[in-house]
Structure formats: C-alpha cells, structure tokens
Design goal:
This protein is of the alpha+beta class. The protein has 3 domains: 57 residues, SH3 type barrels (Roll); 94 residues, no CATH class; 106 residues, 3-Layer(aba) Sandwich (Aminopeptidase). 21% of the residues lie in helices and 36% in strands. It has 7 helices and 16 strands. It has an 11-stranded mixed beta sheet with strand order 6-7-8-9-16-10-15-14-13-12-11. The chain has a 5-stranded antiparallel beta sheet with strand order 4-3-2-1-5, with no helix packed on it. The chain starts with 14 loop residues before the first strand and ends in a 5-residue tail after the last strand. It comes from Kineococcus gynurae.
Length: 325
C-alpha cells in the first residue's frame, strides 16, 4: 500500500485494509470489516480475530472491495447479495438503521433505493418479526413500507413467499449489469457541435434535465457516495444541457446512474459520449469494475448497455406493503 490514508473509506461496516505501526516499530496490515471506530481506535475484524489499531498508529488505509464469492473476473466474482451491498454505497440514505444484516433506509421519500429496506442476509429474527419492524420503521417516518429484495420477481425464496402471503406486491424488477473497466478510446471525441463538461456537484442545468428537476433532498442522495462526478453535454451553439450522467465510486467499483438524453437529441451517440466520460473519470480513480441498474421493462436502455459491453449479473425487485384502501 502507498502511505495514503483514505479516512473517508473508514466507515463502520466497510471492508478495509489498514497498515499500522506495531509497538516494536514494525508494520502490519489488518484486512477485514471495520466493526468499530471510537474516535481514537479502529477495530478491524480479520480472519484471525479482531485487531484494534490506534488512529495515531495508522500508516495507510483504504476501503477494499468485498471478498470474491467465486473464481471469476472482478466484475463477476461477487454474488448477488454482495453486489447489492456495493450498489448501496453509491446511493446512500440519510438514515441507515441495521436490522441484523438488513438495512433500513430513509431519505424523505426521494427514490425507492434511498427509502427501502435492503433485505440482504439474515435480519437476525423470524421473518414475521423482521417484516413488522420494517413496517414500523417506515410508518414512524410517514413513508410507505418498501423492501429491496434480491432476485427476480418470479424467483421464490422464503422471504418472497412470506411477503406474498402478507400481501406485499412486487414492483420494478431491475437488472444489475456489470462490465470490466471498458476501453474508452473508441469513444474519445464528442460529435461535432457538442461539448462535454464534468463537475463534482450537479449544476442547475444538470438537475433540470434529470427527472425533469430534483429537489434539494434529492441532491443530497446524488452526492452521497464517497466520490461522484456529474457529466453534462451541451451544444456549442446553445447553453442548454442535452445529456447528463452521474458516476460514483466505492472501492474497486464505478457506478453509472442518471444517464438521460433529451428526446430530440437521441440516436446521436450522446449517451455513449456520457458513458465514455464517466469511464474515463473512473479509470483515473482506479475503478476496475463498472455496474449500472436498469429496469427489465426498459428494453431500449438494456440493448444500448449490452452493445457497450455490459452483461446481466443479477436482478432485484421491490416489494410494497399492502395499503388500507
């Protein structure tokens, strides 16, 4: 490891590697989940047990991708649940409350991802009690109870069968598509008449094109990753933004989201241009794998991403609690 400390990566629950100085002057690495940070010491749960490191003894530290679940290229090596945890890091909620391995997320109702229970792993209690806890969490916040569930809608699991029996209905089946870091050279130059801009925060013009406008609470979610970039495409003869996209980072991964092109500017290669700029940005930050999420019903986008080199990795969907009416 280079002697760089990425304190922003050292979030409880993250997988990290921490190089630290021992009392005898030698150095060692602690690799595993960061399970505690009291402001003075870090506790890393390693394969050999917990390692407590004084912050003053840290020489280098960074987040690292989850341990691979299978032998494969990095973008294929994680299982579906691991990848769901990775994607969560790119779209974080203001409130994140653990329920066993599950994570209850809320952010004033902006987006399903930020306001749903990530039902990955073991909730640490019987399913009926876990579902009741989810319902209570969202009821306390005036939000409809919603779960993000790994797998396709028609893929039976103990959780989906329990939810179906309790009247929870499926919504928005989504593909998670992945790729190795793609070659951006064939996509290097914008078409004549267009210019590409890159910013660390979304401009007013960027926000006006994405979803037709985004409230301030949505900007918080868009800027919630460890690092992100916002790409805009303009015509050189006009100030209007005609295409946008967002890139975000977690250890080893570049996430692509919010790719939008004005209806009257489609089929001009602008989405590909946005993709190239996002990939270029991710490459400068050592991302080795790329993911995106697209609903199964969006066949046009699925075809475009497939042509760009993305393959389906896994699926997830939402389940909504029954309403009183």
């Amino acid at each position: 490891m280079r002697h760089v400390v990425r304190w922003q990566d050292l979030v409880v629950g993250a997988r990290v590697v921490v190089r630290h100085r021992h009392p005898d002057g030698s150095a060692g690495d602690a690799l595993g989940e960061l399970v505690a940070d009291d402001g003075e010491t870090l506790t890393v749960e390693t394969r050999r047990g917990p390692v407590v490191v004084a912050r003053s003894a840290v020489l280098a530290a960074k987040g690292v991708p989850p341990a691979p679940a299978r032998r494969a290229a990095p973008h294929r090596a994680l299982d579906a649940e691991q990848l769901q945890r990775v994607t969560h890091e790119h779209w974080r909620s203001r409130e994140q409350v653990p329920l066993g391995d599950w994570l209850l997320r809320a952010h004033d109702g902006f987006s399903s991802r930020a306001n749903s229970a990530l039902a990955v792993g073991d909730p640490g209690r019987p399913l009926a009690e876990a579902v009741a806890a989810v319902e209570a969490f969202y009821a306390q916040r005036g939000l409809p109870p919603l779960m993000s569930v790994p797998g396709a809608v028609d893929e039976p699991t103990a959780l989906t069968e329990h939810l179906a029996g309790a009247g929870w209905t499926p919504r928005a089946e989504t593909l998670v598509m992945t790729a190795a870091r793609l070659d951006v050279e064939p996509l290097a130059s914008p078409p004549p008449g267009f210019v590409v801009e890159r910013e660390p925060r979304p401009s007013a013009d960027w926000l006006s094109l994405y979803r037709g406008g985004v409230p301030e609470v949505g900007v918080e979610v868009l800027c919630s990753a460890a690092d992100q970039v916002f790409v805009s495409v303009r015509e050189t003869a006009s100030p209007d933004v005609v295409a946008v996209g967002r890139g975000s980072l977690s250890p080893g991964w570049l996430g692509l989201s919010a790719v939008e092109v004005c209806d009257s500017y489609r089929r001009r290669g602008l989405a590909t241009l946005v993709l190239a700029e996002l990939l270029r940005w991710g490459a400068t930050r050592s991302a080795t794998s790329v993911f995106l999420q697209v609903t199964t019903e969006n066949t046009g986008a699925r075809a475009m991403w497939s042509r760009a080199g993305f393959e389906e990795h896994s699926r997830y969907h939402y389940r909504a609690a029954p309403t009183d009416d």
